[in-house]
Amino acid sequence: MTTTFHPSIERARSNGVSLEMHGAVAVVRLCRPTKRNALSDTLIEALRDIFQNLPAEARAAVVHGEGDHFCAGLDLSELKERDAGEGVHHSRSWHAALEAVQFGRVPVIAALHGAVVGGGLELASASHIRVADDSTFYALPEGTRGIFVGGGGSVRIPKLIGVARMTDMMMTGRVYNAQDGERLGFAQYLVPAGESLAKAIELATRIATNAPLTNYALMHALPRIAEQPADHGFMTEALMSSIAQAAPEAKARVRAFLEGKAPKVSKD
C-alpha cells in the first residue's frame, strides 16, 4: 500500500528532510550530507511540518542523518544579525519545531553517528530514546563562538548530563566520544559503527506495538510528573494511570496476560 503524505511533508523534501514509512515506523532523514546535516531555518521548519503531520499509520518514528554525521549543529553560514526581539522570535521558532518532536503523537528514537554537535545535540535531546554508534561524538561549541544555545538545549541537555557537565562543554569546548557519552547519559544504547539506524528501527518497531495511550503517557505525562512537586506528581500519576488502564486495548492486553496468551517478562 502506498502512503499518501500531507502536502507539507512533500514540501519538506525540498528543504532537506525526507520521510519513509517502514511499516508503522516513520523514518525521518536529514538530507544535507555535504553540510554535515547542519540545521538551517528551512530544515527546522521542515522537521516541524513532518512531525506535526505524520501519516495516520505511524506509531513510532526514527530520526537520523544522511552521510557521515547525524547533525553538526546550526548552519553558521545562515547566521545573521538580529536585534534582541528578532532573536527571541527565532529561538522560539526552533522551540516550536523541537517540541513537535518531543511532544508529538508518537515516540521518537534518534539514530546517532558522527557529529552530534550544537543544534544536533539539541535535536537528539528532544527525542525519547537515543541510539549511538561508535563513531558518535558530542559537543556544544556555542560558548567558544560567542553565542548561546537557542533550540531548547539549556532545558533538555542538563536533564541528560547535568548542569555542571553542560557548563564545562560550553565553556571549554570539551568533546565527548561515544563511549563516554553513553556512560554520561547522552544515549541509552551504544552499537558498533554503522548499526545505529538498524537498532533504532528495531526499537521503534517494538515500541510501535505498545498501546498508543501508554506511549502517549510516557511522552507527555512522565516528563511533567518528574518536574512536579511530589503531591502533584502523585495526583497526575493517578489520573494518567486510570485513563490508560480504562482504554479497551489495555483491558484486552491484561486479559490476554491473565489467560496465559501473552509472554511473561524474562531476563533473556
Could you please describe the fold and organization of this structure?
This protein has 268 residues and is α/β, with parallel strands linked by helices. It folds into two domains: 7-207, 2-enoyl-CoA Hydratase, Chain A, domain 1; 212-258, Lyase 2-enoyl-coa Hydratase, Chain  A, domain 2. The protein contains eleven helices and nine strands. A six-stranded mixed β-sheet has the order 1-2-3-4-6-9, with helices on both faces. A three-stranded mixed β-sheet has the order 5-7-8. Strand 3 (60-65), helix 3 and strand 4 (108-112) form a beta-alpha-beta unit. Helix 2 runs parallel beside helix 3 (84-102) and helix 4 (119-126) crosses helix 5 (153-161). The chain is globular.
How are helices and strands ordered from N to C? HEEHEHEEHEEHHEHEHHHH
Total of helices: 11
Strand order of the main beta sheet, please? 1-2-3-4-6-9
Given the helix and strand composition, which structural class is it? alpha/beta
The main pleated sheet reads as: 6 strands, mixed
How helix-rich are the residues, as a percent range?
A: 40-55%
Alpha-carbon Rg, integer: 19 Å
| CATH-defined architecture of the largest domain | Alpha-Beta Complex
- State the shape: globular
Strand content: 5-15%
- Determine the oligomeric state from the structure: single chain
Task: Give unreliable regions as ranges.
Answer: none
For the record, what CATH class of the largest domain applies? Alpha Beta
Mean pLDDT: 93
State the total count of DSSP E strands: 9
**End-to-end CA span:** 35 Å
Number of domains: 2
Provide the CATH superfamily of the largest domain: 2-enoyl-CoA Hydratase, Chain A, domain 1
| The CATH topology of the largest domain | 2-enoyl-CoA Hydratase, Chain A, domain 1
